[in-house]
User: Fold Phosphopentomutase from Pseudidiomarina salinarum.
Amino acid sequence: MARAVIVVLDSFGIGAAADADRFGDEGADTFGHIAQYCAAGKANEQRSGPLCIPNLSALGLAEASEGATGRAPAGIAKPQAILGCYGWAQELSSGKDTPSGHWEMAGVPVLFEWGYFTRTTDSFPQDLLEAIVEQGDLPGYLGNCQASGTEIIQRLGQEHARTGKPIFYTSADSVFQIAAHEQSFGLERLYRLCEQVRELLEPYNIGRVIARPFVGSGPADYKRTGNRRDYALPPPAPTILDKLTASGGEVVSIGKIADIFAHQGITSKYKATGIPALVETTLSVMRDAPEQSIIFTNLVDFDTDYGHRRDVAGYARALEQFDLMLPQLMNALRPDDVLILTADHGCDPTWPGTDHTREYVPVLVFGQKVAPGSMGRRETFADIGQSIASWLDLEPLDYGKSFLTRA
Ligand SMILES: O=P(O)(O)O[C@H]1O[C@H](CO)[C@@H](O)[C@H]1O
Ligand SMILES: [Mn+2]
Ligand SMILES: [Mn+2]
Assistant:
């Protein structure tokens, strides 16, 4: 009997994937560029100097990054000893979005193409917009373009508050996002609208509708809240989560994991806002979760607050903050448990635009019974799901090769 704890550092890529040119992402490197900016003294806001992440380093992060890129990350001190089993994984899925990355690590790569709204303005089809306005009983809509979510509420928030028209926007991802004010529009009303849009999008094969509530009295203090909700399509096949729950095990979602899996294969869920609170929640779940559990945490802030915002110093601070808490996660493991740190895609904060980047992700594994050393390059994120299947003595999954054998 054993447990698996997966912590996804959302968007923490470690170097352009072999197929990054297909995405215009050749040369992207979320971790490598953050380390480089820090070492060059170009990321000194509320922190300073080279990136200080001794605990991630002890799990083999720098070695994984060097394996993925052929270069050692700048300014990262070599650990005295490597305690983790480390590697770097290529994505098999066609997209570089959050559901694809998570489903693939849970054993189900997305081999079909999502629908996308590719026009930068007038992004959504007119008949779809008309149907949403009618069904949602709306006075109209604002936006209808590709945008950064923080920028668009600055630009259109006041008009939204004045007219009651919700803000519709998309990105390079397969998403329909709706920003609306929690008080003037209403949070429950926003959620209901998203559910209606989810249904109206049926013919378009769009991965997610995302509710983006915000508060504040004007552009100077508009702020998005932790009440974001993602309405994802369900994974196209049973994941390791479904297999474990079907066999009587527990799957605990922390953060937006349950939303990403359309609430399938989850036995309990906890939400928290911010990296410290999400890690604290993970620690408290680890104290009580029974054997044959997966504890699955998504740390969305790396992506939403720093990657998409192209905030290098903020991303570095968040990594340093997580690194300080990492020993608590390692110490909370029971003798048979395994801790896996990974990511779902990249979002290089030094890269043009505000979108994700196609990168290798780190696979850092720690457990009292896991032999340290390199697991090398992995062909698919599904190796994570397959390894957990083998660790928890479940039937093998259709995709992936296990990097874990119980000692
Ligand atoms: O700019 P914000 O609203 O954070 O949106 C980002 O978040 C979405 C979901 O990850 C992405 O598609 C990207 O558009
Ligand atoms: Mn993501
Ligand atoms: Mn994102």
Observations:
- The two ends are 13 Å apart (CA to CA).
- The longest helix spans residues 312-331.
- The chain has a mean pLDDT of 97.
